Amino acid sequence: MISKKQSIQITTKQLIQDLNWVSENPSLLNFEVLNEIELKPLSDAQELRVIQLGSLEIQSFKLGFYFEALIRLWIQVSEIYTLKAANLQVQNNQQTQGEFDFIVENLEAQKFEHWEVSIKFYLCHQPQLALEGCWGTQLKDVFQGKVSKLKNQQLQLGKSQNGIETLQEIGVNSSESRGLLKGMLFYNEQLGQFENDQLNPFSTKGIWMYHSAWDNVSEGLFVVLKKPFLFSLNSYSKQDILSKKEIQKLLEKDESPLMLAQVDKNEDTLVEYSRLWLLPDS
């Protein structure tokens, strides 16, 4: 097993599959909420370019870190955008006021754009509270809080005086702010779902349950997903497939949260048809 202190080498096949997962899966929010960035699936020429660039080494298992690396690669092989700056810090009296995720040049529109991107897997524990009732892996990571931070803080950075001056230092006199929030929402079948003006009704959905509810799950084939590979199933093979009984044994050994993909085998390829997030009853 790879130590989390080590870097990870990601193959070009993995990068292509994950980039297509990111571009093809609907965003969590409606387009107008963040003036959404449109990510189109890779063309054949772009896939070839990814292969030519070779494998990618990343220094963290964190999902957000890998997601930003994928977006940067997408920009790199894009025929429309070129990268002007990434993770550009804005200082205020020698303190960091904020950071631009990406400054890109839109070659078609002949303008610069400021992009803020994020990937989130939210568990909807109190659907009656809508976005306020959905949490990430940490309770302080609330869906509505993330949306508000993106809209009212991160995407406003380019309008602040320090942000304007920072952009001017790299030759950018004006920019359009655009955001992207990808990921999945996990619902509990007993608690139900919710509707919201900001929420994209076509966003990708999964199911969450407590460990004790595992007995109620039908027999099937499952794969345990591990960070940062929570997108496509390219990094997993038939050797990773576990039965319902084998998952039960894992739950008995460890009370940690567990993310699973329920799969079918198509020759040597795994096809996912549902995503499950198991939480300890405690």
Biggest sheet layout: 10 strands, mixed
Number of domains: 2
Rounded to the nearest angstrom, the radius of gyration is: 20 Å
User: How would you classify the helix and strand content by structural class?
Assistant: alpha+beta
Helix content: 25-40%
Shape: globular
| Model regions low in confidence, pLDDT < 50 over at least 5 residues | none
What is the number of helices? 7
Number of DSSP strand runs: 12
> What share of the residues does DSSP label as strand, in percent?
25-35%
Distance linking N and C termini: 28 Å
Average pLDDT figure: 94
Q: Give the SSE order as H and E letters.
A: EHHHEHEEEEHHEEEEHEE
Structure, described:
The chain is α+β, with helices and mostly antiparallel strands. The protein folds into two domains: 8-198, no CATH class; 204-282. Helix content is 25%, strand content 33%. It contains seven helices and twelve strands. The chain has helices spanning 12-24, 31-34, 44-53, 63-77, 143-152, 161-169, 244-253, and strands at residues 8-10, 56-58, 81-92, 95-106, 111-124, 134-135, 176-187, 205-210, 221-225, 241-243, 258-266, 269-279. Helix 1 (12-24) packs across helix 3. The longest helix has 15 residues, at 63-77. The radius of gyration is 20 Å and the shape is globular.
